[in-house]
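Our consortium's second objective concerns turning raw sequence data into structural hypotheses that experimental partners can test. To show how far this objective has progressed, the report includes one record in full. It was chosen at random from the queue rather than selected for favorable results. The single chain below, 659 residues long, was entered without modification.
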Amino acid sequence: MSYLADIKQICRATEQAKAPHVAKAYQNIVMFKGAHFQDWSDVYGLSQHHRNKPKWRVEIAFNYFQTIALTLAAKLTMNRPGWAVKPATRDQDDRDKARLSRCLLDYIWEELGCQAKLYLTALQMILTGIGWWAVYWDRTAGTRWQSTNPESGEVAKEGVTGFPRIDPVLMFDIGIDPFSSDTRAAEWGYRIRHCSTEWAKKMWAKTLKGDPSGEDDELTHRLQSSPALTTITDSEVFAGRYVSVVEFYDASKEKFTIFAPKEGIILDRGPWKLPVPFLAARAIPNIGDIESGGIGSNAWIGETPMSSLCELQRIFNRSMCQLIEINNLLAHPRILAHTSARLNPFSLVDAPGSVVEYSGMAPPPTPFHVGQVSGWSFQMPERIKDYMHDVSGVHEASYGGNMGSIQSGRGIAIMAEQDATKFAPMARSLSEMIRQAAVQNLKMWRQFADGPATVRVAGRNAAFEVFQFYADRDITSTDVVVELGSTYAGNQALRKDQLIQMWHAGAFQDRRMFLRMMEFGDLDEDAVDTHRLKQTREIEEIIAGKGRQVAVKPWHDNYIHLDRLTEFMNSTTYDDLPLPLQQQLEAHFEGHMNIEQQRMASEQQAAQQRGVASAGAPKSESFSLTSQPDIPSMGLDRQAEAFPGAGMGTMLQGGGLKQ
């Protein structure tokens, strides 16, 4: 058997093995779209429950299933990931390169629109149990660059940098070794792609003939046999323009093969020394399918709590529809009439004061009311809705609903936090998928990027930074750390309340750390970055100038300049400098230190004078932020930092922050 026939057989067997999970995923998607009175079948598609139902029958879909799924997806992807690149060594140069790599990841995240792709993948994970990212390197993307000959000024070399590509992929189009419990350790994996023949010719220089007949059923993409290609009047317009292509990655043999299953043509092949380029996020890990012999295969496919809500959602709809029908019967009851009355059916209308016509040959028609309806019948829908919230873990506190007996804000916050703990495994799975994508992007950039790339990033306060990035010299580490659950929408009010309580208890010794955790410390991030970058340029100027003195200006923030100098002078780069340059940097350090000491001395003297002036002053009975000694100052000015007695009122009265 040829290698192509072998991998085609492997792909078909994998598609058949995951069929039960595919059916469950389709059913969840049907429920999400509101087709609650229909069933899905892989043979007949959607089928109606009551095709010939009477007109009085009520069928309304109260789609709490969709609300729960959207709430989960929104909470899991509220924030962008918080990540850092570990430096290869403790050397300052490697630490700077690790920072550049982090900026590169931020640039990739924004350029590819990964936040929207993360939301789509999270929604797929919630509905189907597993969401996928396919990570590639696109040699035709990126920015164009060129290098010139310094002597002649002519262009010596030019090219395109290339750029990563991330595609959110549904579980229906991905296949992994069924006996692998971890997608990253899978020996092989594949993706069934639906693409146009023109795109295939551009990518692989092969001419393919599109055919929606679906002869290779398991390996034919689901879109290839869609009604838009087969049943509409002008279906021939699409028939020859699209084709199914399979990407097969064999990690054990370190090679990949891309082929068209319908034509049996290999489009591309080559070495592949990376793991399978499909990254998964699972809602609930699957221990394995339950089979006759016990726990079996398909452990790589995730499970989802949404599957348990399908029947509850149907029962809820049925209960609500029955209550509406009962209400209709109470408002417009059936009519009890003798057969001899010869009742005119056209006179039975809903208009008030209408006349019911009958022959008069029998007693007049009378309303036939339904019997008494028990109270628990009206309570049943609310109980079922509570069951749905308990099963999914999404209660009213998670989406701003009515909490009933809980009225305090802190109590609602605690309930929302308890809901959040149930979603921690999902958040960790998404964080791990993001980390793997970041690692793979750095590895691909270092291996495939061509020439320098101009990277533009915006800080948290929209402070733009532009720099040239060289893959061969600037990526020294691909070890990425992603803060677990950083994308999850935590309860900020409860978190800040806990931080203030910790401050009162004396758990924080550093006021700056407290402000950063309270998210007040970012207010001066632009100023801090500006002064740090200025001092970095001064260090480079001193080294490049072979000891030329750099003056200390009055508008410099000496505190930040000293912090940057201290960081540099403790690095190995400083140790390797000649002694005259080290002495020049020390002199520059002393210049900033002298001015900082003078400023601190003057502030201490002013503070002592204010303390003497306020001695003996009557104490006010009214509440004041400045009269609370245990609440830290939210300002970032040096005066408040040197003297903790200055409160938040000092900053707020000034109308802004002081440097």
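The partners drew two points from this record. Residues 521-525, 617-659 have pLDDT under 50 and may be disordered. The longest strand covers residues 130-138. Both points have been shared with the crystallography group to help prioritize constructs.
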